[in-house]
Amino acid sequence: RKPVTLHRLREMHAAREKIAMLTCYDATFAQLLDAAGVDVLLVGDSLGMVLQGQPSTVPVSLDEMAYHTACVARGNRTAWVVGDLPYGSYHQSNEQALASAVRLMQAGAHMVKLEGGGWTAPVVRFLSERGIPVCAHLGLTPQSVHALGGWRIQGRDEAAAQLMRQHARELAEAGAQMLVVELIPATLGRTLADELPIPVIGIGAGVGCAGQVLVLHDMLGLTRGRLPKFVRNFMQGSDSVEAAVQAFVAAVKAGQFPDDVQHGY
Ligand code: KIV
Ligand code: NA
Fold first, then answer.
1. Which of 47, 195, 196, 220 has an alpha carbon 20 to 30 Å from 170's alpha carbon atom?
2. What is the predicted ipTM?
3. Region of residue 149 (left: phi > 0; alpha: psi -120 to 50; beta: else)
4. What range does the domain containing 208 cover?
5. Residues 124, 169: contact at Cβ < 8 Å?
6. Which of 11, 129, 182, 242 is catalytic?
7. Would residue 1 count as lying in a domain?
8. What is the CATH number of the domain that holds 195?
9. pLDDT tens across 80-111, in order?
């Protein structure tokens, strides 16, 4: 296939073709996911938990994110690569955020992602105006897990939902080209996807989103312990890793994943 560009992602969004996104941390998986038709590879700071065994994403450094972004970029051929700006790397000033984003872009990212509501809008604007595509991230934002009081559903009551919708609008107006929403009610996920001009990619946010993302190791059934309800193990019924990833892409494109009864809030 031709390389996935921002223009292509906008076309897909306009045509209501669902966007399939998975986390990816190394070259081998980048090659496999790209070949299996995954549209967007997210070099997520979830690598702190998945690869490093940390209790949260808080300990992940910018050096580590740049290293994994470079690994993914080397293995990838056509997918759109998003690199997570880690904890503390964009909080201090616009200039700090720019320097951090430049590191990831030079490592091979096509877009950077950062977490947080209204306070990040000026940062998003600063980066966007300087030619760096930005993905925002609302809902359960893991870098704030301690402030949020744990891994709990966000935007549940009417006031919280209204505030999230306002933040989402501000981020899109500031130039964000994509929005990830994590662990929110399916109805709110659909509302956000319907009212925003940019693709909204959900994880535990219902089938009404413009696309879906999962942590690779979760959807391959490799993660031990209790998994969130929004995860589906795509190795079940697949006889190879490649087939499992293809099944994920197919289920997302067909609107068959997530199933809001089984995987929704
Ligand atoms: O780091 C990550 O894996 C993420 C996704 C859960 C969206 O940010
Ligand atoms: Na992340």
1. 47
2. 0.99
3. left
4. 6-263
5. no
6. 182
7. no
8. 3.20.20.60
9. 999 999 999 999 999 999 999 999 999 999 99
